[in-house]
Amino acid sequence: MQPINESPQWPARLPFFYGWVILPAAALAIFVSGPGQTFSVSLFVDPLINEFGWSRTAISGLYTAGSLTAASSMLAVGWLLDRFGARIVLTGVGLMLGLAAIWMSEVSNQLGVYAGFTALRIFGQGSLGLVPSSLVALWFVRRRGRATALAGLGMVASQAVFPPLIHTLITHVGWRQTWVVLGIIVWVLLIPVALLLVRRSPESVGLRPDGVIAPSVLADYDQQPSIVQGGVDWTLREAIHTKTFWLVFTAAGSQSLVSTALIFHQTAVFDSRELSAGVSAAVLSVMGPVSLAGALSGGFLSDRFPNRLLLLAGQAILGVGIVLAITMTEPWQAVIYGAVIGFSSGSVFTVAAVIWPNYYGRKHLGSIRGAAAVAMVAGAALGPLPFALTFDITGSYTSVLVIFLVFPALSVVAALFAVPPEHRKVTQSAPE
User: Fold this and answer.
1) Buried b (16+ CB within 10 A) or exposed e, 394-414
2) pLDDT tens digits, one per residue of 264-307
3) Judging by beta carbons within 10 Å of its beta carbon (0-12, 13-18, 19+), is residue 270 exposed, middle or buried?
4) Which of 105, 117, 244, 414 could form a Cys-Cys staple with 179, CB 3.0–4.6 A?
5) CA distance 408 to 383
6) 66: nearest Cα among 95, 16, 30, 103
7) Closest to 138 in 3D by CA, of 356, 402, 326, 302
8) SS3 readout for 188-220
9) What Å distances lie between residue 193 and 24, 196, 282, CA to CA?
10) Are 161 and 39 contacting, i.e. CB atoms less than 8 angstroms apart?
């Protein structure tokens, strides 16, 4: 990590650790990602179909193409985070996400929609998933899991606030003006906070992670069982040459693919099970609070237990959710399904954010998590299209749901073997 700033800035002179300011700022950034998340974009699918007459498969294909393009940009976003810090990157991301939303208000053809989806996914789901959670990991070490979980409250709030807000706005002012409002919300909420409050790391302002005062205390972190790799900083090149990198990459990746597909097509899936749109909306309202429970449990447990086993548990729970999607026929079963998917999503999201710095350190975290985010964004891209294609061909979602059971099963196996990597500089073995 960078050396301590010898001229401490004002955050270092506060009577409390400045990380407790960074934490709500990161949560707000995650909240503002809402317009680029599937739970928001999915509400515009039917208005696009109604206005342009395109098929659901065509729109899903545009969403897939845009998300895949966005996935390829995550390496660059991670590099920019390491090079310039979260303050500059978050400011730029907020500006561009607002512009992307306003762009969507003017689209008139499929090329324009593709460009809009690409920008929303780069700056919304991708960048505002990567940068805030990495920022928290830079400021917290000993409390990294619980801090990441608390920052994840931003996503829970986003899921709770944006869907009903968007539905209301579309109903009253139309889908185009709704995008304009969303762009303004992004600008007003994110840009001032990024400029005024965010700092790249505790060392940059004369502090140490968790507010530790003495270097001798910081050195004791090597003895903490909750810190997997004892402060060793890997480069991206070193990390990708370890087996563990690819196992964690696999273990965390399927959550985004499966849950995005399920949420994007939830209304249609429920309709195929003779469950109303009202039931679908109720289930979405259940997912948010239960996702919070999953995030908090995953975060607090990741400070105490092997992260790989928590990933394993989260993916196993996702598999149960897919089985429920195949078999549910009653509203109460649908509610249980929503709770299971929500809990799994919250848990895996949090543990996946924690495991990378715990295994590979903080110095090159942006680049390493940027590479890992390729799987997350690409998974979100590839999930919805097979659902739409299968339904158009067969009129049923059962077959694709059965096929999708492969992904959490593969992730469970990968997580089981994703033990902490060994670094040649490490003198003390890390606990699993």
Assistant:
1) eeebeebbeebeebbbebbeb
2) 788 778 888 888 878 887 887 788 788 889 989 999 999 889 99
3) buried
4) 105
5) 13
6) 103
7) 356
8) HHHHHHHHHCCCCCCHHHCCCHHHCCCHHHHHH
9) 10, 5, 33
10) no
| Measured CA angle at 241 (ends 236, 245), to 5 deg | 75
Work out the average pLDDT over 239-258: 88
Report if pTM > 0.85.
no
**C-beta atoms surrounding 47 within 10 Å:** 14
- Integer Cα distance of 98 and 103 in angstroms: 9
Largest CA distance in the chain: 66
Q: Are 318 and 344 in contact (CB under 8 A)?
A: yes
Q: Extract the tokens encoding 354.
A: 């924690």
User: Residue 307's Cα: distance from chain center in Å?
Assistant: 17
Structure tokens at 384: 């919805």
How buried is residue 333: exposed, middle or buried, by Cβ count under 10 Å (0-12/13-18/19+)?
Answer: middle
CATH assignment, 13-205+214-223+230-417: 1.20.1250.20
